[in-house]
Hints:
Keywords: Isomerase, Rotamase. This protein is α+β, with helices and mostly antiparallel strands and about 190 residues long.
Amino acid sequence: MAQAHLLSAFIKLVVLMTRSASVLHVSLVILLADTFTVFADVNSNSSEFQRIRKANTTFRILKEGRNTSAKVFDGDVVTCDSEGTLVSSGKIFWDLKNFRYTAGGTVIPGWDHGAKGMKKGEIREILVPASEGYGEAGFPAMGVPPNEDLRYVLKVLKIQEKDGIRKKKPRTPPTLAADLLKRAKDVEL
């Protein structure tokens, strides 16, 4: 229902913007359409894995987080329960409760990619290819052989936003559409 409302708002936005049809407006509409499609795919609670843009890591949401809670962004201090297994054997090599890390470079790239955007209470399964995990070296001390693909299950317990506050929240297509719909209420289509 909410997605239908947002889609309706997006369509109205497209109609409003294409009426003036300048190159800038058309480019913005194309950019918003592309972003909206990706956002809708990532937030679907399906059993299929979602590929992360500009990465080979994939994830699927096992349990939705709280809608009103903050999302994980670079610089945030995140506390989570985490379990890591080797894809080839299913062997657990990592199992920590209340693991605390700073998002954006303090864990392997695949973990960072897969955890971005998670909300408090959300549980994700993340599949990390070796190239975004421990690579050719592996991590022998933890029992991770070279070129091993990894599977993590993360549950976000707490998100401490960078500097205690979120200075600038990213604009998502649904929030853009909702804001523009509010401004366009008086415009008849």
